[in-house]
Amino acid sequence: MELDRYPLVSVGVPVFNGERGLSRCLEGLLRQDYPNLEIIISDNGSTDATPAICERFARSDPRIKYSRSFENRGATWNFNRVFELSSGTYFMWAGHDDDREPSFVSACVAQLERFQDAVLCQTHTAASVEGREETLYVARFDTFEGKPQVVERYRETLERLPAVAIYGMYRSSAVRKTKLLQAVIATDLAFVRELSIHGRFVQVPRILFKYSARESWNTINQDARHFLGRPKPWWYVPSVMLFIDDGQRVASSEISLGLKIRLLTVLAMYQGRQFAVKVLLKIAGAICPAGRKETLGRAMYQRWIHNPNVEIANDEQFFQRVCKPQLGWWK
Predict the structure, then answer these.
(1) DSSP 8-state class, residue 314
(2) Closest-CA residue to 14 (of 134, 94, 109)
(3) Does residue 313 form part of some domain?
(4) For residues 38 and 165, what is the distance between their CA atoms, to the nearest angstrom?
């Protein structure tokens, strides 16, 4: 087979203590029906069996390249590291516990080759809770279709971006125009928003990716250790730091001053609405009778928070796992 006919796809696997799912992840990547792959594993100072698993796979297949840090530098550093080590025309991140159908890579490459102005392709994604078989929700990118204008597209990433977009396939040349991930909690969202400035998003309308969500949401301190590799400073306010990250990305983009002002205005208006919704939810949760909280909470979640690109597959589990933590009304 002449590999030159197929653009190289780099798959970055950032991992820390991933012994439970790593073998399955790597086996799934090696089963991809796309012929021109490089798989880059970066071990972020794992203390379990991860290094032995990585070394075994690297010995068995020349497509796998293994790099190891002897200390945990945080997920942000590790995600950036695998991209910096890549050389493909296209790039994607793969979580150590996620599953992809064998046609995931080839389907995404076909879309990115077809739409030369596209910078990100994701398939429909079935998400489940760690340790459970049933699907929690299916994420799509329907509202991003037909959004050729930068401002409209950027607004869409603020309001309706499914978080699983981070595990789609990217045009590497577009990623190099961004600030990659920064030392900020939820910087992956800011990265994808910045990417939208450089091109449009497309999708493969089939479920080719299965995402495993944690059983419960991280605390802020847990997120700080995950993203930053260190405890959260006392002064750190995640929403404020993410807003600053978003703003800096727009301000440093190689676009006209007029477009920067328009995007920053969209960002500021979005942030203002988010603040107003949080205040409204806090007041409603404080004054609502206990017997009515669930009914009101469901209604307010659907009205003010729910993403139309997320199709709920298990209503009760979704309410317990997603709605209740986001509303913050229950301890």
Answers:
(1) -
(2) 94
(3) no
(4) 21
| 288 Cβ contact partners less than 8 Å away, ≥ 6 residues apart | 296, 329
pLDDT at 16: 94
The pair of structure tokens assigned to 309 is: 């690109």
Domain count, the chain: 1
Whether 274 is in a domain gets the answer no
Both tokens assigned to 96: 């150590």
Model confidence at 331: pLDDT above 90 = no
Alpha-carbon Rg for the chain, nearest whole angstrom, is: 20
Say which residue the tokens 């309410």 belong to: 319
Separation of alpha carbons 250 and 268, rounded Å? 12
Q: Compute the distance between CA of residue 57 and CA of residue 65 in angstroms, rounded to an integer.
A: 9
Q: Where are the alpha helices (DSSP H) in 88-214?
A: 104-114, 150-160, 172-175, 187-195
Helix (H, G, I), strand (E, B) or coil at 106: helix
Please, which pLDDT band fits residue 1 given cuts at 50, 70 and 90?
Answer: low
CATH number at residue 115: 3.90.550.10
Residue 240 lies in a domain: no
Torsion of CA 154, 123, 138, 266, to 10 degrees: 0
Which band of pLDDT confidence, cut at 50, 70 and 90, is reported for residue 188?
very high
* Cut 0.85: pTM above it: yes
To the nearest whole number, what is the mean pLDDT of the chain? 93
Q: What would the mean pLDDT of 247-256 be, rounded to a whole number?
A: 97
Contacts of residue 193, defined as CB under 8 A and 6 or more positions apart, other chains included, come to 154, 157, 158, 161, 246, 249
